[in-house]
């Protein structure tokens, strides 16, 4: 089939599986409700060029960003708490600064991917009341799952694509 349809079929079928994993087997675990992070990482795989490089970039940069985000939340509720309403904005600014500086390292060069991870860790903290320490592991596991789904969806789409004679 044409590559356009092959990718649509691949992503559509695997989206069912990815979502089912989170609402089925993982529904009663620390990963419950984090399917959105998996989808962000999946998209990040393609945004980062696909293939092994796209998967590596998605997983490494998003995980790094999530760790920076976790530390920013801890800073806002810790050392920066005395700055009042400015604690969170300052912590976010410092986190963004760190992400940009870290992009000098080739493995962390994709700033948007790190920002996706930074933002992703906020969900379980703000919406589910998790501590930063409770949130980081499930977030990184969801990033890994999403990166793998990106890689597999690309392989499946390639397998379904009709090759020219």
TrEMBL record:
Pfam family, one: DUF1097
InterPro entries: DUF1097
The keyword Nucleus is assigned to this record: no
Keywords: Membrane, Transmembrane, Transmembrane helix
Residue ranges crossing the lipid bilayer per the database entry: 20-42, 54-74, 80-100, 107-129, 135-157
Protein name in the entry: DUF1097 domain-containing protein
């Amino acid at each position: 089939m044409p590559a356009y349809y092959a990718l649509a079929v691949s992503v559509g079928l695997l989206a069912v599986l990815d979502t089912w994993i989170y609402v089925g087997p993982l529904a009663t675990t620390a990963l419950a409700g984090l399917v959105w992070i998996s989808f962000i990482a999946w998209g990040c795989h393609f945004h980062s060029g696909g293939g092994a490089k796209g998967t590596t970039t998605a997983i490494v940069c998003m995980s790094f960003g999530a760790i920076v985000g976790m530390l920013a939340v801890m800073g806002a509720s810790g050392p920066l708490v005395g700055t009042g309403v400015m604690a969170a904005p300052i912590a976010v600014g410092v986190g963004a600064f760190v992400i940009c500086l870290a992009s000098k390292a080739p493995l962390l060069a994709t700033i948007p991917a790190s920002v996706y991870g930074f933002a992703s860790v906020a969900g379980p903290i703000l919406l589910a009341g998790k501590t930063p320490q409770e949130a980081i592991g499930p977030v990184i596991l969801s990033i890994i799952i999403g990166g793998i789904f990106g890689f597999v969806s690309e392989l499946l789409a390639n397998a379904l694509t009709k090759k020219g004679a």
